[in-house]
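for the record, two folds in this file. i put them one after another cuz i was lazy. first one right below, seq on top, structure tokens after. the second one comes after a little note so u can tell where it starts
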Amino acid sequence: MRKKRRMAELFVILSMIFLMLTACGSAGYKKEVEENFTDNGKNEPYARQIPLDEMDFQVYDDYFPKIRAMILYNYDRKISLPCDVEYYESKEDSEPILTLEKGTQVYVLPDDERTIVGYGRCCWPDYEEGWRYGKPFLTIDFTYISEEYPMYYVKSEQLEKVAEAFYESNRDSFSSIRKKDYVRRTTQYIDQILYDNGAYISKALLEK
């Protein structure tokens, strides 16, 4: 009995030490990200906390490469959604305005490389953690019209699940990168570009 009690106490102590080390590591990472950020001083929309549904994203066009090499790879561009992906006109809405149901076939990569930024899994970061803003995935029977295709709020977690499914669908092409790193890199692509150009530090980038 005493041995079991000691083992239980040791487990609790080790668990507490692990949690403390994890918290310290996360705090250190967050501090490093914040200290390495240099505001570009341009007072752009993110710096002024302009609501995303009122923002002119063309302000940031020059920060993004004109041609994305990933379009040239032989990826399977379509996948079946691994979960429902829900889009909202407002984060305060109780019901989504659009739901792409689990199992729906969608294009993760569009035909035109110019549409990647702000589309599908590559949406703009919201000021509130856990939310993004962008254009919904295209289903296989829909033609993309960038000027008319609306943008909505969407939960980050759902886009991350889609990125995971795309990774699994094209695993042979991603042998050099871990799934966790791939998901972070692709869903936070815009976040990193904004950070590198001194425009904004997203909540997602602060998470280790």
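(here's the note) second protein begins now
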Amino acid sequence: MEDIAIIQFKIDSVIKSLVQEKQFEQWLKLTFYLNEKLLKEYDTIYQDAFYVKIYEVLTEGILYATKVHESLTNGSNVHKTDWYLKLITGLNKVKTSFNDSELFYIEYRRHQSSHIFQNQYEHIQDNFKIKKVRNNKNLKEINDEIKSMIAKHGSDREIDYYLNKKIQPVLTKIYETLTE
């Protein structure tokens, strides 16, 4: 007879999988919704939300989708397996369309949209320690890349237009492919 803790673990694992699938689905729907809205008209509130959604989709979302796809390849649900493969392929196409500067900027704007302060980008931290690296990247290089993008485009809003124009057609195509 199975231990009650093992049974509970199995139940919790199934529940967690179902909840995360729904959370991921909602996150994708909102990402596609924001993409569609921004395609029609620029809105700073939607733009800020879009940076949060797209950054997470291109990082944690790709990892999650890959994990799900790998587990599905052992099953018989060919339609769902193919759906996840199309999603992963499309999201990787979006991600690789950005250069490092653009990815730094998207991550920065994600933080700017989610946190009051962006202290993690500061060299001098609240505890007066000097920070040189952020997520295995040289902080000075990140700051230089972000400043360079702003100088090149003139403003955050112009960068928004540029990045949106770059990925909106790809995101729209992914959505159309997934909903066929």
